[in-house]
Specification:
The protein has 6 helices and 6 strands; from the N terminus they run H-H-E-H-E-H-E-H-E-E-E-H. It starts with 17 loop residues before the first helix and ends in a 48-residue tail after the last helix. The chain is α/β, with parallel strands linked by helices and about 230 residues long. Helix 2 crosses helix 3. The N terminus is likely disordered. The radius of gyration is 17 Å and the shape is globular. The structure holds iron/sulfur cluster (SF4). The site of iron/sulfur cluster (SF4) has 13 residues, from helix 5.
Length: about 230
């Protein structure tokens, strides 16, 4: 099956104009993530979701303090590390999450052998499209510090679906992130202490090479840098 056949097409008129997005980004550049999340909750209400890979619970912790009912979406690709699923389990114990676990079509089971494009399209992109099909906006945990390809990450943008995408921690300084995580005892994936600076599906994740940027262990040895959900 071609990748495009597995993708739910969602296209809506953007809720925000370009000038509005520009103004919001300028105003949010140095704002605390909680203020950005508050704006998103006030603007989009129950039409807002949060997508997380549970490499940690930083964004979940921030968002649930603003709105405990926000829908938290986890894409269960079927290829997560046991440690990642344990972060999810611990998060469910700590937080009363309105959790939505989205899984791929069972017919996609062996797509990894067909290549990462098809596999990511079926196991990540299509399930997230499905999870967001009733929403107008979503929160993501992308940070500019993640990698050289993410240094221009906007705080507010319109994605390919026509949805408003909000990255509340995109510009949050690393020392502030670390201070918050320590103070709030944020749950983290233990693989981070084992050299895995960025954690995705186990077949496509290696330890980051010493001296290389943090996402260098993802799809290592290929030109791929993203799975496609952030387009
Ligand atoms: Fe498949 Fe790898 Fe993409 Fe996971 S990261 S969906 S295993 S290609």
């Amino acid at each position: 099956m071609a990748p495009s056949d597995t993708t739910v097409q969602i296209r809506r008129a953007p809720a925000l104009s370009r000038p509005e997005i520009h103004s919001l980004n300028a105003g949010f550049e140095t704002a605390h993530p909680s203020r950005i999340i508050r704006w998103a909750v006030n603007t989009f209400g129950s039409n807002l979701a949060l997508a997380t890979s549970f490499s940690d619970t930083l964004l979940v912790d921030l968002a649930l303090q603003v709105d405990p009912d926000i829908e938290v979406v986890f894409l269960d690709t079927g290829f997560h590390f046991a440690e990642t699923l344990d972060v999810l389990r611990r998060a469910q114990v700590r937080y009363e999450m309105n959790l939505r676990v989205e899984r791929p079509d069972p017919a996609t089971a062996d797509l990894w052998a067909s290549g990462t494009d098809a596999c990511c399209a079926a196991r990540k992109v299509a399930p997230l499209d499905q999870a967001l099909s009733g929403k107008t906006a979503w929160l993501s945990g992308m940070r500019r510090a993640d990698s050289a390809t993410r240094t221009e990450t906007p705080i507010v943008s319109i994605d390919r679906r026509g949805l408003t995408k909000v990255n509340p921690i995109a510009a949050w300084p690393t020392h502030d992130v670390e201070s918050y995580m320590e103070a709030r005892e944020i749950i983290v994936n233990p693989l981070g202490d084992d050299g895995y600076d960025s954690i995705g599906c186990w077949p496509c994740t290696e330890r980051a090479a010493v001296g290389c940027e943090t996402r260098s262990g993802r799809w290592a040895g290929t030109a791929r840098t993203e799975c496609g959900i952030h387009l």
